[in-house]
Amino acid sequence: MAAVQAVKKFKTVVFFGSAKTQVPPWGGDARLGDRVLKHVLSVLEERGNHEVTVFDPVTVFGAGGALENDGELKAPHFFFAGGTAPPAMDAMQQTIKAADCYLIVSPEYNHSIPPALSSMMGHFGGSNFAHKVSGIVTYSPSPFGGMRAAVAIKIMLSELGCCPISKLAGIGTVADVLNEDGTPKEIDGKPSRLLGQIPKLLIDLEWWADATRIHRETHGLPG
Questions:
Q1: Mean pLDDT for the chain?
Q2: DSSP of 71-91, one letter per residue?
Q3: Which residues contact 214 (CB under 8 A, 6 or more apart)?
Q4: Are 186 and 195 in contact (CB under 8 A)?
Q5: DSSP letter assigned to residue 112
Q6: Within a 10 A sphere around the Cβ of 103, how many other Cβ atoms?
Q7: CB 10, CB 49: distance < 8 Å
Q8: With contact defined as beta carbons under 8 Å apart, do 82 and 44 qualify?
Q9: List of the chain residues with pLDDT < 50
Q10: Rg, C-alpha atoms of the chain
Q11: Residue-wise pLDDT tens digits, 173-211
């Protein structure tokens, strides 16, 4: 059997968990996570080995989006007969299925998974995600960094079949750590050590993404 070469670029799908557009009455960002998402994407770009697709619920569920006006999950992709799903939904499904790995960037809503995230991913059957890996970056305005959501998201990802790696990244007190453009704020002359979690997570994610890809190509899928 011919040797399989390590992948040069990973097809990486980033699912963003927040659909907020409303500025809270106490002020601040309408969507604090935009800072985190921008930072994560900049780290992926710096690494130079990821072809990134971002699925943001504001655009995915918005006008002209792949899941337009279906945040409630009324019509999942697998409820359509072959060839009858909306073309944009089919395109999203194909992108998910072709991915080498998944990265979740999410806040914590009511100590759990944001409904926009679970709906967006739940529109597509587990066979699209299966036998691959995923990583989780959570955030919050509090010091806890969304860790309670990360625990719940891990279970969801496991059931979809894209096993979450053990390393997590949790970014707390986001407005103190990142500027609006996603660049790090300096604290005592240097960026917050919290941001160092993200490159470490990506190193692990890449290792597992390459390992699972090679195994799929050399051994096929089970069953």
A1: 95
A2: TT-SS-GGGSPTT-S-HHHHH
A3: 4, 6
A4: no
A5: B
A6: 27
A7: yes
A8: no
A9: 1-2
A10: 18
A11: 999 999 999 999 998 889 999 999 999 999 999 999 999
At residue 121, what is the residue type?
Answer: M
Query: How many angstroms separate the CA atoms of 150 and 47, rounded?
Result: 24
Q: Are 65 and 123 in contact (CB under 8 A)?
A: no
Dist. CA 9–CA 107, nearest whole Å: 28
d(CA 99, CA 129): 8
Closest CA to 69 of 123, 31, 16: 123
Q: DSSP 3-state assignment of 103?
A: strand
**Which residues are registered as beta bridge partners of 10?**
50
φ/ψ of 112, rounded to 5, equals -150, -160
Q: Which amino acid is at 102?
A: Y
CB 136 within 8 Å of CB 202? no
d(CA 10, CA 139) in angstroms, rounded, equals: 24
> Which DSSP helix (H) or strand (E) runs through 214?
helix 197-219
Q: Which among 169, 166, 175, 176 has a CA at the least distance from the CA of 198?
A: 169
Gap between the Cα atoms of 215 and 4, Å rounded: 9
